[in-house]
Structure formats: structure tokens, C-alpha cells
Amino acid sequence: MAKKPVQFTLNGSEKATFVEEGQNLLDVLRRGVGDLTPKYGCAQGTCGACTVLIDGEPHLSCLTLAETVEGRSVATVAGLENGAALHPLQEAFMRNFAAQCGYCTPGMLMAAKALLERNPRPTREEVVEAISGNICRCTGYEAIIAAILEAAGSGSAASKGRG
Amino acid sequence: MPVHVETHANISDAARALSSARDGRFFGGGTLLMRALNEADQSIGTIVRCTDPVLRQVRSEGDRIAIGAGVTMAEIMANRDLAFLAPVARIIGGPAVRSAATVGGNLFAEPPYGDFTTALLALDASVRFAGESGQSTPLQDFLRDRANRRGRVVESVMVPRITDPKALRFVKVTRVKPKGAALMSIAAWLPGSGGRGCRIAYGNMAPTPVRAAAAERALEGASLSEQGIARALQAATEGLTPPTDMFASEWYRREVAPVHLKRLLLGQGQ
Amino acid sequence: MSIEFRKELFADERDDNLNEIGKPTQRQDMVGHVTGRSPFYDDHLFEGLLHMRCVRSPHHHARIRSIDVSAAASMPGVKRVVLGKDVPRNLNTLLSLLDFGLDDEPLISERKVSYKGEPVAVVIAESEHAARDAVAKVRVDWEVLPHVLDVEEAIVPNAPTVNETYPGNCFIYHGKYTHQKLRYGDVDAAFAQADHVIEGRYQMSPIEQAPTETCGAIAAPENNNRYVCYTSTQALFFSLGTAAKLLDVASNRLHFIGGTVGGGFGGKVDSLHEPMAILGSMLTGRPCKYMFDRAEEMQVGAPRGAERWYVTDGVMNDGRLVARKFVGYFDSGAYTRLSSYAIIKAVGHLPGPYTIPNVYADVYCVFTNRTPATAMRGFGITGVDFAIEAHMDKVAEQIGMDPIEFRILNSYRDGDMKAHRRLAKNTALIECCQVAAEKAKWSLSDQAKRQNSLTGGGGERAQLPNFTKTDENGRVEGFSTGSYAQKNKPGAPAQPPQPNYQPQPAPRPSAPPPAPPTAPPPQTPAAPPPIPRPTTQVQDPFSAPTPTPPNPPQPPAAPPGGAPRRTTRFSSISGLRRR
Question: Do A142 and C1 touch (CB under 8 A)?
């Protein structure tokens, strides 16, 4: 199968890799460049576990044709921390026990980050809408909503983090 | 089979490539096609992409608006001229789906998807293919023969310019809250006073979105009151054969269609 | 979210020095979760990883005439196509590790398939895409067989045999019966004398656990002739034992690493991904990954099985339950997995948290041509509890009684005898009902509000029935009674049947018909024996088939002034301690 070279920015760092034709971004992030934070849940756009930001917009990396990120900027949970300090969203998720098995958490965090970047003071309804494409099977939605609202309340969640 | 992806900067090149490709499929936002690629759908050999800016444009053409086929649901929601369509775009998937899913892709979406097209059908939209300048195909005709249109590149969708956001009403009926696949969606365009000239379309009541022609006729000249719409509700599923699938049975769809149509027409909360 | 403690309840039974409950304690894995660094099985990268994809049956039930893998095997990137003959010991059942059930399920089927999606071949390839393309090229010549998808249709004579190990489509309990029995008192006699006999039928569909992380495993050759296996299993040692058995290797050659699971809910207890991935690694010498995609997780990932329950209650005009009879069917799907064991749990739970002096249950673990069923949260209990509580509402409505008061009246209380012949302790249903009513602003009578779990139980309510009617219905031959479903082995004589436990001597039921002289058919339903008559003086007229009116459990008296007790409540979660 023919391979194509692709260059993009991942959490602020330049990446160059070869992708197979038709390959999805999730696969390239995980196996191509070794960022294991986006998770495989369905490869059909229903679970949200692979959510990443592309040029600041939330996207499902399993439904993103890898070659289309050429020259663009991709952000994942791996870029949320600032040095040793957790991102305010990560801290709020911890404080609110907003993870049980932890598998949906990276997608939830990126969906939340996308929301707070364009809407730093969301209502509860807007938070629910923002994570409406992300499934948590451990049924932790209330804790997740509380964590996102709390991070928004701290006012600094939108601007922190690389990428 | 190994998939070949080709990208064209010009829409006419893309249209030519698609029509000559063996097992070719046009790539819109990828929300449906990538799923097929992830599953190694053996019917797909070539993917044709197009980066022509014309696909991303929203522009006025007299009393109509041409929405580029590559415009995403997120872009619809952000466009002031398309405010009447924002509530429809908002119920398509979650935010991450909406930043990829396109108007053109939705035209080809199989059930249970294609809610946006249901609204377009109620709006009497028409479809313009690449290379066509003046003419366009009524959406109803397009849908009737949809399978045979896959080999053509859609450039844009024409919709009437609507200033009163209440003139277009839409409901997506799901079992999962806040979001889930629709067991049915209903769109109603009420351009005049009362039911005059109204257009009603259903999603997921047939293999493609369909008009509720009998209900439309019954509403002609009627008032949008409980009494006025009674006949239309009786005729809500006349002429339709709703499917039985994993979301609902035919019986259930027939039972609840008038209930949701009533709420929609009376403007009652869903 | 806040937790409300009702510390006034059972206050004298606790010293109330709760060190952890009610106080948040950070989880040790939380930092890993919020940073995305928690190592799920698929987060281990291996150079040269190969991918495995199954060829699956499109039919519910079919014989395999032949499998042609030549086109698939020669495709680019394909390393190997694996068939059932490549599995060292291609028949297993998970609970054989507990001596509970017969091996009945191949890892990769060779002769026939019994559910849609059953694997018949596995492609190992350089990429997942190449594996999928090759799967599409495998040609299987199927002889489609009639199938059965309904539990009751599966156990009628001449129904298609789903599972050759159990030709009657029923799991065999204790080597003897087509179903698990519970006999406590005499429900028929009690029904005859009850004011109302009320029947209900309840059923639950299969439920997929749908973990966000699909089931999977990665195996790779390790040093010292060992294999390492990263897995999403919820039951590491079950998976280790199963892999060692199917692959016929010593378990110390397998190095299992698990523990971080992306949601399981029971569906990852009996996965077969580990033996499959290790087999791939053994056959190719390379790291191999076998994972379900989402469609497989939903279609062939073992769900909570469907259940169907018939519940019949005998009830007096004043609301006292005098008898409850269950006939239940668990849909095990095509193979045993865990349903047979779930039924043991279910029957131990009957008749629910109520004191009823006559209880009867026949519960069948039925094989159908559906996806094999397994555990899911509260398995064995959830389905029948739904049936019981729905039926409680139905009975309350039919006799014109408030449904909560009906429950309080019949609730078990400390010291009551349960149908599994142990005294109830640490009961708290009455208090739960009272608090639930209070929260729902549901008015209760003063009488119901005064009740409590500590008083009114015991005494006559602690007595076993004087007579329990037993039978040999569903008796089968050809299985050993030495274990739950043992087939007779040469040199291992069948043990004599264990005596039924009876508090007082009662007439023995007649013996089952003798076995045929030649190889016995697997099932020989016996005619019901004549109803035994009690010969001893009965103390509890309620459980005896005498013409006197049934005597329901003594209505609990109003509580005395709260006699202090210093027993420890909630001391045993599983109940095993008491055995």
C-alpha cells in the first residue's frame, strides 16, 4: 500500500510521519507517532474516546483521514499539562472524581477544552451539549459535568496548555 | 482492497476523477466514509477529495442561498444568514461530528442519519452538481434516485432565504438523551399564515427523507390550532410504509408520528 | 452529589467509627486517568505487531462443509490463516476451572457453528486492514441448519440440538436434572388454600455491557520460552487458566499483565482473546493483537443473557404471601459460559427478600442459537429481581393493597427462615421501604411506619416446613452426580444420590425409572412421583397439605421498646462466611 508523508504539529511539536492511504488519524497518533492518549472505542464516530483538537476544533480522530492534518495543529491530552502542573480541567476532574475506568477521560477532557476555549463561562446545558458526543459507560456524567463547570469557574481553564 | 486517495484542487477535476474512478467515492467530511474505510468496506477502491474553495462558500443568489456542499454543521451554526438552520445543525451528532460533517455528505446519509436533509426537503431545497451553473435538481427528485448520484460531485444546495426563524420547525425523536440516532425526524416549513403552503418532511420513515404529502394537503388553508390540524394528523403517515428496524417498529412509528407532528405544528415543547 | 446517612437506624449496632465512608479519598489511578497515561492493554507498543481478525459465521446454525483459505493466505501482508485444527485443545468451558460444567465450546469452530458470529478461521496479517481484506476472501461452504432462538422452543422434543455436549439443550445440574430445583414446603397445597393465586410472566432481553474499550489482548514471545499477554480481562486468573488449558501449556509459561480495564461490567470475565492472541504469537513467533471492533463487541461479545420468568403467588386477603412458585429460563446462548452458575445464584436468592413459607423453583439454563451469555452486574439476580418486584406490584394491585405496605408486611425480618434454609439476619428491607416512601412523599399507615426488621421475626417464622414435597422431574441419565454436570467417566462409578435435606422424615419419592440397558439417551424425563402424604404431626399447618386453612407467617407484632442488640450488621458481603 502506498504511503504518504504528512507533517503536522502535535501539542506544539513538529511531527513528520508516513501514513497509509485511507488510514485514520487515531491510528497514526497512536502507532505512528506514539501518542497513546486518544483511545479506540468504536472507529465509527459514536463514542468520542478518540476526540482531539485540530486547529482548536474538536474532531474524532477515528473519522479523520490522517493525510488531511497536513500542516495543521493537533492537540491531545498529552499536551494538557504545563510542565509538572496539571491543567485546571485535569485538576477539576481529579477533585470531582470524574473518572472511573478512565477510558473515556481523554476524550472528555478534549471535548471540555474545546468548549472552554470558545466559551469560557458555559452554562450547565452548554456543558452537557459539549460532551454529548462522548460516552461514559461507568455512568459518571454528573461528576464530569461538575468538573467542567468547576474548571470554568476557575476562569483559567481555557488558556492553559500547549498546542 | 488497498484504497487509493486522490485530492483535487479544482471541482471539475474532482468530478472528472470521480466519474472515471473504479469503485470511487467522494469524500465530504468523512463521518460516514471513514467508518466504511475503518471497516475495510470492500466496495471502495478510490477516494476522491476536493479542496476547491467553492465547496466551502455560502452565498446569496436572489431569494435563495447557495450552501457549498463542503460546509460543515459547525459552520452552519456560526453563519448568521443560516440562523434558521442552526437548530437543525445543532442536533447532528456531538460537536466533534459537527466540525467534520458536511451538508453534501448528509444528502447521501443512509438511515438512521440524514436529519439535515430532512429539513432541506421541507425547505424545497435543490441540488446543484459540479459543472452546472444555472440549473439545479429538486431535492425530492435527487432523493428518489439517490443511489445513482453517488458518481457525481455535489457543488451546493440551494435553500430559500428565511428571515423568520419560527417558519422552520424541526424535531428529532430519539430514545437516548441528549443525543442519539433518530427513530424519526420531522421538519415543517410554514411559509405563510397558518398551514398555507406548508411543507412537511420525515426522516427515517422510508429509505430516504420523504414528504408527508397527505398531511400537507390537509393543512392547506387550515389554521394551526388543535382543530385545524386534526385532519392532517389523521393523514400523518398516509401513503408511507415506515420501516421496522432496531430503533422502532413500523407500528410504533405510525403511532407516534401524529403525536410529534401535533406538537411540532402547535409549537409545543418537545 | 451528597450522601445521606440514616444513622438513627440500627444505631446501637455500630460503633460508628467510619474512617473512610463519607470522606473522599483520592484514587491511586486518578492521575493516570486524567493525563491519559493509565496503561490499558492496547497502550503497549510492539515492533512488528501482527493483527488477528476472525472469519465469522453469517448463520445462526450451520455445518461447515469446507473452508477454503487459499486466496486469503496468499494476499499481501497475510502471515497465516489459523483454523480449529491449529488449537492444541479446542474445547473448553470457563467454569471447568471450578469443576462446574462440561467442555462445550471450541475456540475456533471446526465442524459446525451454533450462533451468528461464531469464529471459524482467523487471519493473522501485518495490518488490521490487510487482515480484514483477507477475511473477506475466505470461502466457507455452509450447510445451513434449522435454528432455535427461543428458550421454551429450544427444550421441546425434536428441537434442533444447539450444543452437542448437552443434546437436550439444557445444562445438567448436579449430573441429574435438566434444571436447578428449589423445594421448600408445598406450594400446590398452599395455592389450593390461598384466597388468590396470581400469575405473571416476565422477560428480559440480552443486554450488552458495551464497555468503551472493546475486549482484546496482545501477546508476544518472551524469554525462557514464555509468552507475555497484555489483556483487558476482568478475571486475570480465569483467563490464564483458560489460555493454559486451550493451548495445552503449563500456566507458568504464560505471563499475564492486566488490571487496567476500560470498563468491563461483567463482559470481560470470560473473554477468549488471550488464548487467541497467544496462539497467534506461538504460530508466527511475532507479537499478535486480537481485539473486537465495536460491531463485534455488540454482536459476539457475550451479553447478559435473556431471562424469562413465570411467577405464581398464593396470597391471602390480608396480603400475606403463602406460596410463591417460579419457573425460569436463562438463555445461555450457544454455549455454557457463566449462565449455569448464574442460575445457582438466582435460585439461592429466591423468593427475594420476603418471608414466604412455601417456595418452589425450576430454573433451566437453556442453549439457543444466540450469542453465548455471560456475567453482567449483579448477574443471576437482576433479572429475577425485576420479575419479583414487578410481580409484587401486580399482586398488590390485584388484592387492592398499597404496594409498599404489601412489601413491608411480607418483608423478611431478623430470625426468619429463608427458602435456602438459613435464618435471615441483618435484614433491612422494612427500613428501606419506609425511607423510600418518606423520600417519595408516599403516605404509609401508622401500622406500616411502626414496623421494623428487628422485631416480629423468628419464633414460628424461624421454623422449617414440616413437609417439603420433592420430585424427580427432569431426571436424566448418563451424567455423573459427582459434580454439577459431569458425564460418567469409565472407572468413576456414579455416586448415590444425596439425600434430600428434610427437617423431618417424609416419604421418599419414588425412584426414577431405570436407565436403558444400552448407551442411554441423554435425557429421560421421569413421570412425576405420586404426591407424598405426610405421616407426622405437623406443627406448622401452613406448610402441610392438610385441609385446615393455611396459616401464613405470624403477622409481626408491633415493636417493643427497642431492645438493644450488639450484633454486627453487614458483616458479610458475599454470605460465604456463614457456610
Answer: yes
Q: Do A59 and B47 touch (CB under 8 A)?
A: no
CATH topology of domain B166-266: Enolase-like; domain 1 (3.30.390)
**Could you read off the pLDDT tens digit of each residue along chain A, which spans 163 residues?**
579 999 999 999 999 999 999 999 999 999 999 999 999 999 999 999 999 999 999 999 999 999 999 999 999 999 999 999 999 999 999 999 999 999 999 999 999 999 999 999 999 999 999 999 999 999 789 999 999 999 998 655 544 444 3
Mutate to test the interface with B, among C54, C132, C292 (most CBs of B within 10 A): C132
H/E element, C407: helix C403-410
pLDDT at B165 (0 to 100): 84
Quick one: fold of B56-160? 3.30.465
- Closest by CA to B93, choosing from C289, A42, C371, is A42
Cβ contacts of B30 on chain A, cutoff 8 Å: 63-65, 68
Q: What pLDDT, in 10s, does the model give residues C51-102?
A: 999 999 999 999 999 999 999 999 999 999 999 999 999 999 999 888 889 9
**DSSP summary character for residue C213:** S
Contact A103 C213 (CB under 8 A): yes
Select from C1, C25, C35, C208 the residue whose CB has the most chain A CBs within 10 Å, as the one to mutate to test that interface: C35
Would you call C143 an interface residue with chain B, using a CB distance cutoff of 8 Å? no
Closest Cβ–Cβ partner in C1, C45, C263 for A101? C263
Q: What's the mean pLDDT in C364-374?
A: 98
Domain boundaries, chain A: 3-79, 88-154
Question: Per this entry, what is the length of chain B?
Answer: 270
Q: Specify the higher pLDDT residue, B19 or C521.
A: B19
Q: Which of B1, B55, B52 is nearest to B23 (CA)?
A: B1
Nearest CA distance, C293 vs chain B (angstrom): 9
CATH code for the structural domain at A88-154: 1.10.150.120
Average pLDDT taken over every residue of chain C: 87
For chain B, where are the E strands, in sequence order?
4-8, 24-26, 46-50, 58-61, 64-68, 126-129, 137-138, 154-160, 168-174, 182-189, 199-203, 210-211
> B199-242: per-residue pLDDT in tens?
999 999 999 999 999 999 999 989 999 999 999 999 999 999 99
Does residue C118 sit at the B interface (CB-CB below 8 Å)?
Answer: no
Is the minimum CB–CB distance between B99 and chain A shorter than 8 Å? yes
Q: Determine, for residues C133 and B39 on separate chains, whether the beta-carbon distance falls below 8 Å.
A: no
Q: To the nearest whole angstrom, how far is the Cα of A13 from the nearest Cα of chain B?
A: 23
Cβ neighbours of residue A125 closer than 8 Å, sequence gap 6 or more: none
Extents of the domains making up chain B: 4-49, 56-160, 166-266
Chain B: closest CA distance from residue C197 (Å): 34
CATH of domain A3-79: 3.10.20.30
Name all domains of chain C by residue range, CATH numbers in brackets: 43-145+210-299 (3.90.1170.50), 180-207+303-464+541-578 (3.30.365.10)
Distance CA B169, CA C24 (A): 47
Task: Assess C294–B contact: CB distance below 8 Å, yes or no.
Answer: no
Structure-model confidence comparison of residues B68 and B147, the more confident one: B68
What is the rounded average pLDDT of the residues C36-60? 97
Please identify which residue in the block is written with the cell numbers 459476539: C300
Q: CA B150, CA B136: separation in Å to the nearest integer?
A: 16
Q: In the structure, what pLDDT confidence band is assigned to residue C552 with cuts at 50, 70 and 90? A: low
State how far residue A155 is from chain B, nearest Cα, in angstroms: 22
Question: A33 with A48: CB under 8 angstroms?
Answer: no
Single pTM value for the model: 0.89
Q: Are C136 and B40 in contact (CB under 8 A)?
A: yes
| CB spacing of A103 vs C31 below 8 angstroms | no
Of A102, A104, A135, the CB nearest to C32: A102
